[in-house]
Amino acid sequence: MNQETPAFCFCECSHPGCRFRFPSLAAEAVRLSCPRCGHAITIAAPVRAMFGGKTAVSSPNTRPLTALLDNIRSIHNVGSIFRTADAAGLRHLYLCGITSTPAHPKLAKAALGAQETVAWSYHTNAVETAVLLKQQGHPLWALETSPTAQPLLTFRPTAHTQPPVLMVGNEKAGVDPGLLALCDEILQLPMLGHKESLNVAVAFGIAAYQLGFTRLGAGDWGLEIGNSANL
Question: Which of 89-98, 112-121, 127-136 has the lowest average pLDDT?
């Protein structure tokens, strides 16, 4: 059963030397004092229900996209990727190796319900799974820092009949070399600072939106999408 999402409000400390402002569930705000100094608070007008409402996106602006998560060690990262996958309209997540599945109780805390809306399947071996996907005609794109990688932001893919698979790998070891060998494209994000890479969930979010919302015009993916549910 769907439960109504709670409304939130913003509270502000009434003490002139504090003025701490913070969000709270509207139903609980009347019982609160300032958590910083203990003085009384004032309550602003309630904002919309948390996560209520949704910006409509016309379907011609997006293309089907799936993703393969190989050996992601952080449950928080997996949950965050589920939430991004839901927001960006991804069709399916292939969870491989040590990557946690929604069966893990801690994943739901980061996914915030997206584990119920995004299709997923678990596979012990990512390379074997990628081989099957490639045989079915899915382009394989890995997100990885590599001398042979091309910049994600200037990547312009050609049309395919099956949705591409965006692949991300372990936070420490990176994408499995066996997966890279199967790739049609290796993509990387430009790093302008001192660090060599981004958090995998952050990088995935950037890539999912960039690839999902780049237009190709007529002949794009989407009208004839094969069923990969047997994987």
Answer: 112-121
